[in-house]
Design goal:
heterodimer, A: alpha/beta, OB fold (Dihydrolipoamide Acetyltransferase, E2P), Rossmann fold, 29% helix, globular, disordered N terminus, B: mainly alpha, 2 domains, 16 helices, binds iron/sulfur cluster
Chain lengths: 414, 320
């Protein structure tokens, strides 16, 4: 199997793990910290407010982003610009109880349903894409993340609900479910396509290419299974979305938990009995595309797909300044046919214009370039930096050309 | 003790957090392992002098690198093992009883002009080892010619036979295929350990340290051109397999042409690069003044590398 067999021969990149157990319950946290950046705190929510599961805490102006609800009985202990803190309390007899709703019965469709689901806490950006064909990405997003097979097989009811709601959004003319080759799942009335479950095929743009044979075709979008699971969760439970499914992975264990939104990573790790040691790396998201955490009080949010500990000494350390040695491994594995080696060097020397000419914005952020780099360069990080700078420059140019426009329109455009 | 009670300091890093495990240092280690069979065979055939040349070459290569990193105010890179590997490969291209001063000169030239002058490991446009080798080979041909240096041996130099006596003379010569494989021929001390190098090369391939396209198509290039010539006139041109088993063909195919800094990065480029190198090898051997064209073939191919690198696919989703 070609060169890739040599450079990418990590069995973990095979995205099927035969993990079909039901999800484990996450911890019952004593405190929660819910992120409210860009949110507006709901009326009546202030310090000392008593909250109950499903109670609205904050709203987001955009249709793309779900509103925020309390997952527990508790008391708001603090609110600052970035977070709401909730201390758990025992349920009391006179605490209000939210009645579950049946959204399929209620029968909303289209825009109305989209608003409703957003109000129920679901992030609707990917789910509500207006495209001809929407592909549901049924693969585990990153190597090491293992909930996809369970969602497809063990939690089928949830998924069925999600797909039905998705259909009723009527934003996409056609919905396709992409599942790993060899999978036997089937759902009435759902088109299924099979893709090779090998990373990076789970990266949305690569998946679209695998399914359609085209690179970045117009009018075709993809949405992650995780997102659809959230929609299905709202559909089956009848409550607002208050939790997420997270793979917790370390050298010793690998389990999927349903975790309450706002739970700190420290609480989750203790609950999962993961021992931490000095020098370990803690990351939220997937092992190839996630983000590094510096503290245990960071929290799990609705979009969190995984929480991983990379034990000290299991990967060669990154040592800061390490020049590229032209080994070409990154060039060979890049699914976007870019040259991460030269791109990272241009970015290193702040040559962002050249990065742009060399198509760095087409990077699909799979992280493979950094995975194979023998010099342990933060290749993806350099490319992300370049792309962020390019975006900044483009925005700058955009505002600049609007200079003569009236203040109002400039304000509005911003 | 629960995690929150410990005051843990995490290592911060950037995505991706998993890594294939290959590093420059580990690659050097794999090279060393891969070269060991040939080292043993060289000592077996040529004794202590061979060991002396190899040790001296490694030592000088490492010292030169250390010297240059100090002069250039760089952090020392001696521990990554790349200088040691270059030193050993360089020794493999020398006669077993090359005088010590020539070994020192070659190793110094290789690291200084073939590596550090361009900024260090991976920045050189031509193979580090071959730069050092070519400097002394061209300047002091007599001392670098195994045939004139190794007088007290029963072996013969098959390439010299071919060059000056023609392919027919090979038939009555006293070597066998298996003999050639086991290094029973006059040649550079390591380059002539054909079977041992083959084993080492396959080891590197299996470890993903080198790219199979280059090695495979280098050998195909050799076989192809040699086969064509052999077909034209078997009495004048040697059989393709003869070319594989003599000189430094195998060493070049697996250890020198594959140095990735001066080889193309993408599959098609590598294939063409390999074919070109292999074809040049036979052409130089046949029409050139040198008996073993392999190192020069690799250097020429190195120089063509930027052109092979121009062959690249369109970036993701870019049409036309
Ligand atoms: S992350 Fe690296 S390998 Fe992946 S698409 Fe971007 S440049 Fe290519
Ligand atoms: S993998 Fe690293 S060292 Fe190799 S070419 Fe890419 S950036 Fe350079």
């Amino acid at each position: 199997m070609r060169q890739r067999f040599q450079i990418l021969n990590d069995p973990r990149f095979r995205l099927v793990y035969d993990e079909k157990r039901r999800f484990f319950e996450g911890p019952d946290p004593a405190t929660l910290r819910l992120n409210i950046e860009h949110f507006k705190v709901a009326d009546g929510i202030k310090k000392k407010t008593r909250v109950f599961p499903g109670m609205l805490l904050a709203t987001h102006a955009s249709l793309d982003k779900g509103d925020l609800h309390s997952p527990i009985y508790g008391i708001v202990s603090d609110i600052n610009a970035r977070s709401i803190f909730v201390d758990a309390v025992k349920r009391e007899a006179d605490d209000p109880v939210l009645e579950p709703r049946d959204f399929l019965e209620e029968g909303r469709e289209g825009e109305e349903l989209r608003w409703q689901m957003k109000e129920m806490g679901v992030n609707m950006r990917s789910l509500g894409q207006k495209v001809k064909t929407l592909i549901i990405n049924g693969l585990n997003p990153d190597p090491g993340v293992t909930w996809a097979e369970s969602i497809l097989q063990t939690h089928a009811n949830n998924l069925r609900h999600g797909m039905e709601l998705q259909r009723r959004l009527t934003r996409a003319d056609r919905i396709i479910l992409a599942v790993p080759k060899g999978s036997t799942v089937s759902y009435d009335g759902v088109d299924i396509v099979y893709v090779e479950p090998e990373y990076p095929n789970s990266v949305n743009s690569v998946l679209i290419r695998e399914v359609t044979g085209e690179e970045n075709p117009p009018d075709i979008g993809a949405v992650g299974l995780h997102n659809l699971w959230s929609l299905g969760r709202v559909g089956t439970s009848g409550y607002p979305l208050m939790e997420t499914v997270v793979t917790v992975g370390s050298a010793t264990q690998w389990k999927n938990y349903i975790v309450k939104n706002g739970t700190s990573v420290g609480q989750l790790l203790t609950h999962a009995k993961v021992e931490l040691n000095e020098g370990d790396t803690l990351l939220r998201g997937g092992p190839l595309r996630g983000e590094c955490l510096d503290r245990l009080d960071r929290s799990i949010s609705k979009g969190t797909v995984g929480l991983f500990v990379v034990e000290a000494g299991t990967v060669p350390p990154m040592e800061g300044h390490s020049p590229c040695v032209n080994c070409g491994a990154c060039v060979q594995v890049c699914p976007a046919h870019l040259n991460p080696s030269t791109l990272s060097r241009y970015a290193e020397f702040a040559n962002y214009n050249v990065c742009f000419q060399e198509h760095s914005p087409l990077c699909v952020e799979c992280g493979l370039c950094g995975y194979v780099c023998i010099a342990r360069r933060p290749v993806l990080q350099y490319i992300r930096l370049a792309n962020a700078k390019i975006k900044q420059m483009q925005e700058f140019v955009y505002v600049d050309t609007e200079e003569n426009a009236s203040d109002e329109t400039t304000e509005a455009k911003k | 003790m629960s995690n929150s009670e410990k005051n843990i300091l995490f290592a911060m890093s950037a995505a991706p957090f998993w890594h294939c495990g290959r590093t420059i240092t580990k690659n050097s280690m794999h090279y060393m392992i891969a070269l060991m069979p040939a080292v043993f065979m060289a000592i077996w055939h040529w004794g202590i002098p061979a060991l002396g040349v190899m040790s001296l070459s490694i030592l000088v290569a490492m010292l030169t690198e250390e010297l240059f990193t100090r002069v250039m105010h760089r952090t020392s890179t001696i521990a990554d093992g790349t200088a040691a590997v270059s030193g050993l490969l360089l020794a493999f291209l020398m006669p077993a009883n090359a005088p010590y001063w020539i070994v020192i000169l070659a190793a110094f030239c290789a690291i200084s002009l073939g590596k550090m002058a361009f900024g260090g490991y991976g920045a050189n446009p031509v193979n580090t080892v071959l730069v050092g080798w070519a400097m002394v080979f061209v300047s002091f041909p007599v001392f670098m010619d195994p045939n004139s240096m190794l007088l007290q041996t029963d072996f013969i130099d098959p390439l010299v036979r071919l060059k000056y006596f023609g392919a027919e003379a090979l038939q009555n010569a006293s070597f066998t295929t298996s003999g050639l494989m086991f290094g029973e021929q006059i040649g550079a001390l390591g380059a002539s350990q054909i079977l041992a190098l083959l084993v080492g090369g396959l080891y590197l391939l299996a470890r993903g340290v080198i790219r199979w396209e280059i090695s495979l198509f280098f050998l195909i290039g050799v076989l192809l051109v040699a086969a064509i010539l052999n077909e034209v006139d078997p009495s004048k041109y040697a059989s393709p397999f003869f070319h594989l088993m003599t000189g430094s063909t195998i060493l070049c195919a697996f250890f020198l042409a594959t140095e990735f800094a001066c080889a193309p990065d993408r599959s098609l480029g590598m294939i063409l690069f390999g074919l070109t190198g292999g074809a040049l090898l036979v052409i130089i051997r046949t029409y050139g003044v040198y008996t073993d064209g392999a190192p020069f073939a690799v250097m020429l191919a190195n120089l063509l590398c930027p052109y092979f690198d121009m062959i690249k696919p369109k970036p993701f989703g870019v049409k036309k």
